[in-house]
TrEMBL record:
Domain of life: Bacteria
Gly residues bias spans: 99-109, 235-275
Region called Disordered, residue ranges: 90-114, 232-277, 385-416
Protein name as it appears in the record: Peptidoglycan binding-like domain-containing protein
InterPro entries: Peptidoglycan-bd-like (IPR002477), PGBD-like_sf (IPR036365), PGBDSf (IPR036366)
Record-linked Pfam families: PG_binding_1
Keywords annotated in UniProt: Coiled coil
Coiled coil segments of this chain: 277-304
Length: 507
C-alpha cells in the first residue's frame, strides 16, 4: 500500500515546539540584559574617580573648640626643685698660730721655730658645744666659744675691745667667772682662763722663757736708769768727795769725771751758774729721760705680761651647738687654710625659682617640701635673693651662682630658703626635694576658665568667647587668680557668664 506524502511545511506539533523554544531564548536574553544593566548600575554607583575620592575624604569644616566654664576653688603656687641642707654653713679658719708665735707647742723657747701640725683632726658629723675642743694643733687645743666677733689677735693682759668682752662673757657662761665683763683683759681674766684650760686638761699659755728674760732685762734697765739719775743729782757723792753712787751710774750712761769735777767745784759759784753748772743740768735731764723711757718700756711689757689666749686657740661661732659638716684637714696637715665647715643643727631647704615667680614670693609664705622617697614636711619661706646666706657648703655651687647672678640680672634665677620644724628631715640632708610654695588662693569657689580662653580686645579689656545659640559672642570679664592653667574670671557689669557655659579655647 502506497503511503501518502506528507504536506509541505512544519507540522503543527513541531511548530509548537519551535515557538516554545524561541520564547524561552528571548526570556533568557532579556533576563541577561537586565542583570548586566543592574550590575553596571551597581558598579557605577560604587566606583569613584580619584578626584571624587579625595573630595569625599576632606575633613569637615572646623568649628570652635570649647571648654565648659566651671566653679571651683583655686590655689596658686610656685614649684621649684631644691635640696635639703643643714642651716648656717660657715667655714672655720684659725686666726693665727697656737701657742706662742714661732713655736710648735707653746712650751718651747722663742727660738724654736717649728712648723705647726694637726695632731688631732676634727670629726665630721659630731656636735660641738661651747667650751669643747674642736681639734689639736701641735698638742695645743683649739677651743670653741659662742660669739659674733671673730678671733683676730692674741688676747692677754692690757688688751681691750669687743672681743675681750666676748671672751669674758663666754668664761662666765662656762662657770669661770673673771669678775668683770668690762672689755679689758686683766689678771682676773688670766686666772679664769687658766682654770678653764685646766678643766680641759691643758695648760694655759703662760709667759715663756723668752718673756721672762725680757722682763728681767727691762727691770734691770730701770734699776740702772735710777742709779744714773741719783748720780746725776749728787755728782760729788756727798760734800766734796767722790761717792759710791758714781760707779753704778756709769754702766747706765750716768756722769763720769765731768760730773765729779762739777761736784768738787760746785761751790765755786754761789748760784751754780757757769759752764760746769750747765753741764750738770744737762746730765740730770738726760738721766731723768733715760729713767722715764725705761719705766715706759717696762710698763708696756708688764701690761701684756701674763696668761694669754693665742689667736689660733679659740674659734668664735655665732650659733652653738654646731654640727661639724665637713673636715678639710687630717692629722699631720699644716692648718694654714680652712680646717672645717660647721652648720647649725637646724635643717633648711634651698631652691632657686625663676625671677618672675620670685616676684610673687615673700618671707612667711607657707611651703610644702617633698623628698624623692615621698617624705613630706611643712615649711616656711625665711629668705629670698640676697638674704639667702651665700657661704653655702660645697655642692651648692649652682645655688650660689644663682644668688650672685640675681644681684645684677633681673632675669636670673633667685635663691629661696625654706625652714622646716626642728628635727624634721635631718636624715634627708643632701637629698633633693620638690618645694611647693602657696602664693594665693581664691575666697571659696569662683568661676574659672582655661587661660587659653582669655584674650584682650582692642579696648584693652579681658574677654572670653562664649558659644550661645550656635553663635560666638564676646563676654567682657575681669581676670583674677591664676593657677594650674585655670584663671578666675568675673563677668563685667551687664555681662553674663555662668557655670556650664561653653567658652572657646581654639578652632
Amino acid at each position: 500500500m502506497r503511503r501518502r506524502p506528507e504536506p509541505a511545511g512544519p507540522r503543527p506539533g513541531r511548530v509548537r515546539r519551535l515557538v516554545g523554544t524561541r520564547s524561552g531564548q528571548l526570556t533568557v536574553v532579556v533576563t541577561a540584559v537586565a542583570l548586566v544593566g543592574a550590575g553596571g548600575w551597581f558598579a557605577g554607583s560604587r566606583m569613584q574617580s580619584p578626584a571624587d575620592a579625595a573630595a569625599a575624604h576632606r575633613p569637615p569644616e572646623a568649628g570652635p573648640v570649647t571648654v565648659t566654664v566651671e566653679r571651683r576653688s583655686l590655689t596658686a603656687s610656685v614649684v621649684a626643685q631644691g635640696s635639703v641642707e643643714f642651716a648656717s654653713p660657715r667655714s672655720v679658719t684659725l686666726a693665727g698660730p697656737v701657742g706662742s708665735p714661732g713655736s710648735g707647742s707653746g712650751d718651747a723657747g722663742a727660738g724654736d721655730s717649728v712648723t705647726q701640725r694637726v695632731t688631732k683632726s676634727p670629726a665630721a658629723g659630731v656636735e660641738v658645744k661651747e667650751g669643747d675642743v674642736l681639734m689639736q694643733v701641735s698638742g695645743r687645743p683649739v677651743l670653741v666659744l659662742r660669739g659674733t666677733v671673730p678671733m683676730y689677735r692674741t688676747l692677754g693682759p692690757g688688751a681691750s675691745g669687743d672681743d675681750v668682752g666676748q671672751l669674758q662673757r663666754a668664761l662666765t657662761r662656762l662657770g669661770f667667772n673673771p669678775g668683770s665683763t668690762s672689755g679689758t683683759y686683766g689678771q682676773s681674766d688670766a686666772a679664769a682662763v687658766s682654770r678653764w684650760y685646766d678643766s680641759e686638761g691643758y695648760r694655759a699659755m703662760e709667759p715663756t722663757v723668752a718673756d721672762k728674760q725680757q722682763l728681767g732685762t727691762l727691770e734691770a734697765a730701770v734699776t740702772t736708769a735710777q742709779q744714773a739719775l741719783l748720780a746725776a743729782r749728787n755728782p760729788g757723792g756727798g760734800s766734796g768727795g767722790s761717792g759710791g753712787t758714781r760707779g753704778p751710774a756709769e754702766p747706765g750712761g750716768g756722769p763720769a769725771e765731768p760730773g765729779g769735777a762739777s761736784g768738787e767745784s760746785g761751790g765755786g759759784s754761789e748760784d751754780g751758774s757757769g759752764a760746769d753748772g750747765d753741764a750738770a743740768e744737762l746730765r740730770l735731764k738726760s738721766a731723768q729721760q733715760q729713767l722715764d723711757a725705761a719705766n715706759a718700756a717696762l710698763s708696756a711689757f708688764q701690761a701684756g705680761y701674763g696668761t694669754k689666749v693665742p689667736a689660733g686657740e679659740v674659734v668664735f661661732l655665732p650659733e652653738l651647738p654646731a654640727r661639724l659638716d665637713k673636715v678639710s684637714v687630717k692629722t699631720g696637715d699644716n692648718p694654714s687654710g680652712p680646717v672645717a665647715t660647721v652648720t647649725s643643727s637646724k635643717v633648711v631647704v634651698r631652691a632657686v625659682v625663676p625671677a618672675d615667680d620670685a616676684e610673687l614670693l615673700h618671707q612667711g609664705m607657707r611651703a610644702r617640701v617633698e623628698t624623692t622617697d615621698g617624705t613630706e614636711a611643712d615649711g616656711e619661706v625665711v629668705a629670698l635673693g640676697d638674704d639667702v646666706p651665700k657661704d653655702a657648703p660645697a655642692g651648692t655651687g649652682k645655688q650660689q651662682g644663682a644668688s650672685d647672678g640675681g644681684s645684677g640680672d633681673g632675669s636670673a634665677p633667685v635663691p629661696v630658703q625654706i625652714s622646716v620644724p626642728a628635727g624634721t628631715l635631718a636624715e634627708k640632708a643632701a637629698e633633693s626635694a620638690k618645694v611647693t610654695i602657696e602664693v594665693g588662693s581664691s575666697e571659696g569657689k569662683v568661676l574659672t576658665v582655661p587661660v587659653a580662653a582669655l584674650h584682650t580686645s582692642a579696648d584693652g579689656k579681658a574677654r572670653v568667647r562664649v558659644v550661645r545659640g550656635g553663635e560666638v559672642v564676646d563676654v567682657p570679664v575681669e581676670a583674677g587668680l591664676s593657677a594650674g592653667g585655670q584663671v578666675e574670671v568675673t563677668p563685667s557689669p551687664g555681662a553674663a557668664l555662668n557655670s556650664g557655659d561653653q567658652v572657646v579655647v581654639g578652632r
